[in-house]
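[Help] Beginner question about ligand-bound structures

Sorry if this is basic. My supervisor gave me a protein sequence and a SMILES string for zinc ion and asked me to "get the holo structure". I don't really know what that means in practice or what format the answer should be in. Inputs are pasted below exactly as I got them.
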Amino acid sequence: MKIVEEKSRLQRKTHPVSLEEGLELGEKLLAFIEERGDAIGIAANQVGINKKVCVVNVIKPLILINPEVTGQFGIVKYTEACLSFPDQQIKTTRHTNIIVKDDNYGTVIYRPKDAEHLLEIVCIQHEIDHLNGLTMHDRRFAYTEKAAMIYTGGKNGEEETK
Ligand SMILES: [Zn+2]
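Answer (accepted):
No worries, everyone starts somewhere. Holo just means with the ligand present. The predicted complex, written as structure tokens, is below.
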């Protein structure tokens, strides 16, 4: 598997898969990042497979199949890296709590119990973004958000920052 680094290719539409196909592809993606040893997640379209499957391996290996973020709140500033943009580190704005619906685990609420869980939550958002054609550059921390976070002490919910 070769990593896609062209933004135009990363923006291509991805297609839903069956649970069976998703699990098979997910296992391959997990094996791929395990072998590399330098990644905590990857989306199928990052290796040129435009299907709605991504994996995350922070606390335990997760295979997300046709995932959708159905709820999100809490704001955190984070620093992210991406296999598709080697040597780049981007400051982003992410949600601290998310609700994700996918065909493997059903609907799951992810809460930031500790730093490791927050890393997992940010990674899940990063990988699901990939499946929707978005990259960490689209979540870049902006000055206006900085002003909003200072104003509310950084504990603002999604609706307050719009
Ligand atoms: Zn990425």
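A couple of things worth pointing out: Helices lie at 7-10, 19-36, 115-131, 143-152. The first helix runs from residue 7 to 10. Feel free to follow up in the thread.
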